[in-house]
Amino acid sequence: MEPLAEKRRQKIMRKILPLVFLAASMLFLASPAHGCSCMVASPEQMLEFGPIAFVGTMSEVVPNGNDHTLIFDVDTVLAGEVPAQVEVVTANNSAACGIDANVGTRMAIFANDDQGFFTSNLCSTTDADTAIKALGPGTPPSAATSPSANFDWQAVGLGAGALVLVASVWLMGRRRFAN
C-alpha cells in the first residue's frame, strides 16, 4: 500500500473505531429502565429509613438539573431537628421517585440529612394526619434556618460557567496547535 493511502486509512480508522466501540457498548451494556415503585410502609417504618420527619406545606419548587428543591413551611416536627422552613432535595419526576406534589400541598415528609441537605423521595411521604396519628402530635419547628439556606448557589453557577469557559478555550487552543 502507498504511504499516503495508509495514513489516510489510519486517520479514518482513528475516527470510526471509537464510534464502533460506543455503539457496541450501548447494545451490550444497556439495561432496561425501571420506574419508581414503593412498598407500602407505615409511618413507623418510614421513620427507620428517614430519621427526620415533619409535617409541612410545600411553598415552592426550585428546579435544579436532575433534582428539584422543594421548600416546605413546617408546622409540626415528628422526629429530628427541623427548622420552620426547610429545603428538601428530591428527583425531578415521580418516575425517578421524586416527590410529586403541588405547591400548597400539606404532607408528612420522612427525610435524611445528606451533608447539610435534607433529601427524600416519593416513597418517604404520607398523608399528614396519618403520620400524626401514628407518631403523635410532634413539636413545633426550631427557629433555626434550613441547612442550605445560606448556601450561595449563584456563586456555584458562576464558578461552573467559568470552568467550562476556561476548558473550552484550552481545548480550542490545543486543537489549533495539533493541526
Protein model, in words:
The chain has 179 residues and is α+β, with helices and mostly antiparallel strands. The chain folds into two domains: 1-31; 43-155, Beta Barrel (OB fold (Dihydrolipoamide Acetyltransferase, E2P)). Helix content is 38%, strand content 26%. The protein is built from four helices and six strands, in the order ααββββββαα. Strands 1-2-3-5-4 form a five-stranded mixed barrel.
Number of strands: 6
Helix content: 25-40%
Overall outline: elongated
Major beta-sheet overview: 5 strands, mixed, barrel
Topology summary:
Blueprint: H1 3-29, H2 43-49, E1 52-64, E2 67-79, E3 85-91, E4 106-114, E5 117-119, E6 125-126, H3 128-135, H4 153-178
Quick overview of this protein structure:
The chain is α+β, with helices and mostly antiparallel strands and 179 residues long. It contains four helices and six strands; from the N terminus they run ααββββββαα. The model has no long low-confidence stretch (mean pLDDT 82).
Features of the shown structure:
179 residues; alpha+beta; OB fold (Dihydrolipoamide Acetyltransferase, E2P); five-stranded mixed beta barrel; elongated
